[in-house]
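Sequence in, structure out. Go.
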Amino acid sequence: MTVTIRRAVAGDAWAVATVHARCWHETYRQLVPDELLPAVTAERRFPPRVRVLSDPTIGSFVACHTEAGDVIGFADCGPLRNSARSVSGEIYALYVLASHHGQGVGLGLFAACVRELLGRGNISLKVSVLAGNQKARRFYQEAGGRYETSIVSRRGETYLEEAVYGWDYAAMAQLGRGNDARR
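Output:
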């Protein structure tokens, strides 16, 4: 299977919203309270996706089947949230359909975000992941991420524990060089 990683465009909003909702249901069924999942639909993810794709501070990328053009994953990155004057970047979202795990798609999206953040002058990177998502935690650890701390995030009335991983400039530069984001 050939996959291309490219910058997302406005016309990708529905496909990305659909992938986002599918990934939540595939990945988080055992990790979040049951009452959260019914609210995660493509219809509800579409308006925020349109806003993300029109925000110049956010770099958005999609992974597509080269032949069919179907979106199978996406990633968003930008300035570190909750930090007034930081030179750190953050990957806000990185999702790949379960049927494409283990094929390098996630690493390609991750590398695209790293290159974007380096190009914007960021000298470090942070990623937060649900603490119970062991598969994602291994992915970030294998990509050189160092566990830094735990935080609590809120989704509606639900509080979720997240693990924060970090990369310094040297680790980012190595990742940015080591993957051309094409499969």
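Check: Strands lie at 3-7, 59-65, 71-79, 88-96, 124-130, 146-155, 158-168. Helices lie at 13-28, 42-54, 105-119, 134-142, 169-178.
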